[in-house]
Amino acid sequence: MDVTFQFDWQAAFASIPHLLPGIPYTLLISFVGLAIGFIIGIIFGLLRISPFAWLRIPAITYIEIFRGTPVLVQVLFIFYGLPQLLGGPINALVAGIAAIAVNSGAYISEIVRGGVQSIDRGQKEAGLSLGLSRRQTFRYIIWPQAFRRMIPSLGNQGIISIKDTSLFSVIGVGELVRQGQVYIATTFTALEVYLMVAMLYLAITLSLSLVLRIIERKGLAGQ
């Protein structure tokens, strides 16, 4: 049986207008989820290095649970499982944002921990010797240096989270993959459409990488 296949570039480019409405959803879930995740990461990252076990152990537990389970399982639990506990449905978009927030928050916690612990102890002692309080020393001396060191890792986590949004088509979020699935159902051009989906994701992540490189260079220049 002789089966030949010819890639249809016209069909591929024709799919782009149908895919573009998914970009705002992808970016909204990614950036809102990451913003919340960053706050969670700072809190649990600092608790992770607390000298008090009653603060440190809950932080470690949260980090290990959400780093050790797939984000797909997490969003399915939030979307399908939590409503049974709460007694009401959860919006798919909210569930996607929540999944990115708690998942990225666990990874960012470790980035924060590593960044803060990478600063030489002498920096803290220098701040205290200048008459600064522990809080002031952390705010004005430790954190600015630690944050500059975190930028590459935070950028990588941002890219990972953007790509993770592709999993949320399973709960009906209208991001890029979901838009592609809807279009494929009527055109049967899976190869062409998924190639365009991949190209759009690549365009987003490369743009973010470029911005992060600029920020990183400026941050290093400011040292």
Write the layout of secondary structure elements.
Elements: H1 9-14, H2 16-19, H3 22-48, H4 53-67, H5 71-86, H6 92-117, H7 121-129, H8 134-164, H9 176-187, H10 190-221
Helix pairs in contact: 3-4, 3-6, 3-9, 4-6, 5-6, 6-8, 7-8, 8-10, 9-10
In terms of per-residue confidence, which ranges show pLDDT below 50 for 5 or more consecutive residues?
Answer: none
Quick check: average pLDDT? Answer: 90
- Give the termini distance in whole angstroms: 66 Å
Fraction in beta strands: under 5%
- The CATH superfamily title of the domain at 25-173: MetI-like
How many β-strands, per DSSP?
Answer: 0
CATH class of the domain at 25-173: Mainly Alpha
What name is given to the CATH topology of the domain at 25-173?
MetI-like fold
Shape: flat
Helical segment tally? 10
Major sheet: none
Radius of gyration: 22 Å
What is the CATH architecture descriptor of the domain at 25-173?
Orthogonal Bundle
| Proportion of residues in helical segments | over 70%
The string of secondary-structure elements, in order, is HHHHHHHHHH
> Structural class of the helix and strand makeup?
mainly alpha
Structure explained in plain terms:
With 223 residues, the chain is an all-alpha fold. It has a domain at 25-173: MetI-like (MetI-like fold), CATH 1.10.3720. Helices cover 80% and strands 0% of the residues. It is built from ten helices and no strands. It has helices spanning 9-14, 16-19, 22-48, 53-67, 71-86, 92-117, 121-129, 134-164, 176-187, 190-221. Helix 3 (22-48) runs antiparallel to helix 4 (53-67), helix 3 runs antiparallel to helix 9 and helix 8 (134-164) runs antiparallel to helix 10. It is flat. The termini are far apart. The model has no long low-confidence stretch (mean pLDDT 90).
